[in-house]
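Thread: Modeling a multi-component assembly for a lab meeting

Hi all, long-time lurker, first post. My supervisor asked me to bring a structural picture of a complex we are working on to next week's group meeting, and I have zero experience with this. I have the sequence lines for every component (854 residues in total). Could someone generate the structure of the whole assembly? Inputs are pasted exactly as I received them:
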Amino acid sequence: MTTEEIMAVAQGKAPNETFVLNLGPQHPATHGVLRVKLTMDGEYITRAEPVPGYIHRMQEKMGENRTWAQYLPNTSRIDYLSAMAYTHGYVGAVERAAGIQVPPRAEYVRVITSELNRISSHLVWFGAFLLDLGGFTPLLYAFDDREKILDLLEGITGSRLTYSYYRFGGLYNDVDEDFLGGTREFVAQMRPRLGMYRTLVTENIILRKRLEGIGVITPEQCRKYGATGPVIRGSGIAYDVRKVEPYSVYADFEFDIPVFPEGDSMARYLVRMEEMGQSLRIIEQALAKLPDGPVMAEKVPRVLKPPAGDYCYAVEAARGRFAVLVVSDNKEMAYRIKLRTPSFSNLSLFEEVSQGMMLPDALALMGSLDLVIPDIDR
Amino acid sequence: MKQPLRDIVGGFYSLLSGMRVTIAQFFKPSVTVHYPHESLQMPARFRGHIELVRDPATGKAVCFACKVCEKSCPSDCITVEGAKLEGAKRKSVTQFRLDFTKCSLCGSCVEACKSNAIRFSRQYNLASTNKDEFVMDLFKRLEAEGQ
Amino acid sequence: MSLPEPFRLLAYLLGIMAFVGLNAAYLVWVERKGAGRFQRRPGPTEVGYAGLLQPIADAVKLLTKQVIVPPGADATLFRLAPVVVLAPALMCLAIIPFGPHLVAREINVGLLLLFAFGSINVMAIMIGGWASRNKYAIISAARVVSQDVAYEIPMLLVVITMLMVTGTMDLNQIVRQQAGAFWNWNLFKLAANPLMPVTFVIFYICMLAETNRAPFDMAEAESELVAGAFTEYAGMGFGVFFMAEYANIVVGCAVATVLFLGGWQSPIGILPGAFWFLLKLYALVFSVVWVRWTFPRTQFYGLLNLSWKILIPIALFTLILSSVMLKLF
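Re: Modeling a multi-component assembly
Sure thing. I ran the full set together rather than chain by chain. Output:
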């Protein structure tokens, strides 16, 4: 800086200098490869421009070059933390297209596994979010609980993360008594654990000061950007695909949608913690009501050729509303598969909401949005 | 005046309860498995790389190279070759090449095979410094096991 | 046997340097094992039995790294900063009474000297950050300085309170005043200051903030985005900063033990000695590790708010309260 510049700053006449800081594709925090170009004025962010695309794997294009059944593994990998729900969305769309009826036992098992997956996804979010904020221990407690879920699901599907469990017309294979007994035990011991998280983390004054009032998202902003999931439920709007457009057998279960009106990061945090409790309720009810019977529809053709047309199916994944649009032209491969992913819409909020925030607060906001980058880029 | 004081005391108390939780966890046993000194048993349905099934009656591979698995694989991992031996009614497999670097363990091949000739193994200790070790010839492996 | 004075002092100083070195190395082990146990996992176990040789392995690793002085950095200050961070900790330990006769130098203004040297620590981090010529290191170092200065004030208010209660600055005298069983410790002297436990808590929090420990570790853990004040330090330079952090923790806990928990006095009235001092010291160090692994980090303005808006008023209040109590009774 020259003498003139120093004098200008001392007299308070310096122009507002901003610099560009690159929150590079590689994060210390576990969000994935997202690049955010921050224009900062000292400590405050004047503009945050997310640059996605670093993990674009052409999932939608791959749908056009794979047969309907060959595309199933891809669906698990779009959002690997909530893989069951994404497979459910795709399988539901193709079943609608081909007019396949799923037997009730398969539907109930789908609900149980989807809800277990939702809990495990929220546990990862919980651990990673706290890691961003500097508390290292709850991550390991959350992962301990998650191990139990993963072991349960590994017992029936064979994989821990990318399940590929649902098939057109039902499931890959049936659940056994080990799974059902293990799930009951898990539900019994998970409730006290949620109480422990409340004491250790939610009521902690340091965390409350970090999250209350930070990153307020108004319902109008949610509507503009199409944000769904805990983001919109933390801003006071009770929108959950399981209640608004019930799919599978969710209409048979009694559960609440946690809604908090404040719209700050604390509200979104509380929504997810409450959702874990509600998922436990759904699993208990599903275990009690599980019917006997086959888990696969009869007469599902080996080579599926659904009638031509557009078919859509939406599910409530852990991050929000996931919708699949399949366009079929009566061939063994899809003509077009369109994936509407929640993290993409949730991320688009970030630019507007983070204006004027300080950087650590903006990172807390990003953590509370619960983004999974492969979900954004597909 | 009262409210801030109550906030401070309440806040401090929340810190103490948090500390009580962690010290309770301190005295509980470790939940980790000391790999590689100990290891876990894989469940029955665990998805390791696929392997050929041996027919207990004849001692040979069940697979007769119908190539349905090759067609069903989404990632083009499998190449099967078969030849008809003399006096046999159908082909038997001579080469079953699995490119494991592309395999996503989706199970399409296992499901597609109508004769249950392939199944998942339970191998997970698959580290190697050589990429060629992951392009496996499952038929050769089956033969090697037989000896 | 009593050595002539200079040799006795030299022997003590060598002992203190060995104590600091050993502590710095093995407190890393305690921290990692403690972190592991809090997180239901074993912690380091491979190197040596129960991982006891892990600090040695870490030290060897740090020693074998190239110490790079960034071009454009102020080389003298850059190399000086780690030394200036470590030296005050050693000096402070020279006056702390480990046992009834186990003190390097009995000085009748011991308390003053402790806090004088404690302030040098702040300056040293500023030197380190400035000499690195790295934009983020300077910002980080500036934050550390404002944090440390903000927390010195309640700490000194607490010390003044203790000074009024004990009436002397000589650390050994302070410990001797707490003779008898544990209800004679300064922590329980409620007649002199009814809010004594609060005073102790304030001192403890200030000690955590002064040593940049979680939940106040903005300086080091700033690596949410950028690296902290010590980014440009590689190899042993970083190792010395690390050692200095643990040495500061030991000093802080030692001062807390002497001032509040009776130093080398035993809690049951018999057999006082260095053993009790070390026991109390390491119990406090364990609690520092416990606090670190339990809480998330505070936000920077939250940290300053805590100091200026909460701790200082409370510390002033206890000061006035104890002076009133001492005047009346």
